Amino acid sequence: MKNSILDTENDVADRIAQRTLAKREAGYASEVRRLLDAALEVMRQNGMAARPRVADIVAAAGLSNDAFYRHFPSKDALVAALLEDGAQRLARYVAHQMSKEPDPKTPEGQVRRWVEGVLSQTREEIAATTLAVLWNGGSIGETVASGRHSATAPLATLLRDPFARLGSPSPDLDASLAAHAVVGKISDYLWQRTTPTPADLDQITAFCLRAATSAPPSPAPPSPTPPSPTPPSPTSGYHTLPAPQPHQPRPLPASPQAALPAATSMPLGCGSFE
User: 62, exposed or middle or buried, with CB in 10 Å at 0-12, 13-18, 19+?
Assistant: First the structure.
């Protein structure tokens, strides 16, 4: 027989515990956001002159070392989280830009807006911050590299539907390849301190469209089958061989001079023997 009083007490205890955990969770989420924003600001200020220290980050966030290590086992773990956070922010921005396409049924226009949105990271007002984050990301150790979130994954997801409507036979793979190529090109622009020209945007868009619309190569034709050997004669079971001919000795020349070639047959450039 169940005790309704105990059940009621347990319900109250669970409800209060959940409420306490919810408050703590909200507080922890706020701490993580403050740490990520502080790390981004410190990296922007330092550029590539120096990597931020944990002390710099917690000071900018107005938190303690205990708060930092409550959420991140190391500074590399925070940098990895910052890269993932930046990739998600960029994906949300690009998705918003793609939604502005006047005709959503036009995949070509959405691909163009995708290219423009991704390459917006090279604009002068944000290029220095993006480059600083990538530079700090290069210091991430092997301990967290295996779990590092790929910046191309959320961006490739946005290309999957337009590529499928363009007729790509493998939209997931083609979108992933295009995303890797364009994100890699961002690094080129950032390190060279340049921005894509309108002609560059046209060419990169055309590249992505070709990735979605190019037909797969035709399979190579099969190698020709070599002819089978001639079967033996059905009557005798042996091939007929020509009869041997008797040896005929070659006559000797009448004189040693008769065996020499004519003087006129000597090739040009060779001297004559006196």
Answer: exposed
- Residue 215's region, left for phi above 0, alpha for psi from -120 to 50, else beta, is beta
Residue stretches of the chain with pLDDT short of 50: 142-149, 233-241, 244, 252-274
Do 167 and 108 meet the contact criterion of CB atoms below 8 Å apart? no
Answer yes or no: are the C-beta atoms of 155 and 93 closer than 8 Å.
Answer: no
Domain 76-215 belongs to what topology?
Tetracycline Repressor; domain 2 (1.10.357)
d(CA 195, CA 178) in angstroms, rounded, equals 19
Angle between helices 124-137 and 171-192 (to 10 degrees): 100
In the block, which residue shows the tokens 């944990």?
54
pLDDT at 227: 60
* The two three-digit tokens of residue 257, written as one number: 């001079």
CA pair distance 234, 221, nearest whole angstrom: 36
Which amino acid is present at 269?
G
Q: Which of 130, 31, 120, 28 shows the shortest CA–CA distance to 83?
A: 130
Compute the distance between CA of residue 162 and CA of residue 95 in angstroms, rounded to an integer.
12
Taking the C-alpha atoms of residue 145 and residue 76, their distance in angstroms, rounded to an integer, is 9
The reported pTM is: 0.67
**Domain definitions of the chain by residue range:** 7-72, 76-215
Element (H, E) at 226: none
